[in-house]
């Protein structure tokens, strides 16, 4: 399959290892990964903050970059950005776009997937040949859980990883408190939610907390680092890309 890879803003600027891991994983599974060089922000942060007219050029660019019929699927290593493309782009196009944009957005949205969705639903795999001999707990991010409804797909992928010690996270479906600008506008509430999440992680004794969104991992990782917990954060793609030959090959720390 020819798969277009969308990096996301955080992937491009702060956490490129999650993007590289996604490409390495899909190539290892025998697929062609293409990276449209003109891609920019998907516009999610504008839309979430109430600016729906302003991201029209971004939505149009995304549809143009990934609308090529030779790209059979689009993968995004982020539940929130995938959710924006699948749901919010149509809202923007309907309100402020034209018929051509609405059609282009619908075409691209129909072939866009978060990583675990692509692997399980489209490629039909759960065992991807990964090896990760560490104690891991999984945080289901809000957009992946509630907007995309990925369900247990990430857990099915993690359970198939060789030598992993996967432990359930208490209160897993509770928000970590990030929410983009929510963490800035409601800092005290965000911090309280983060503390609850960190307390849950602490009970697992996990070496690694993983998730499908770098944004949530940035928030959680910052809390873990400040608490000197010894637990690190890794994007799901990095775990799935690790093998016996290249265990955890992407060494950039995701905790801040």
UniProtKB/TrEMBL annotation:
PANTHER family: LACTATE UTILIZATION PROTEIN A, UNCHARACTERIZED PROTEIN YKGE. This is (Fe-S)-binding protein. It comes from Streptomyces rhizosphaericola. InterPro entries: Cys_rich_dom (IPR004017). Residues 4-85, 136-220 form the Cysteine-rich domain.
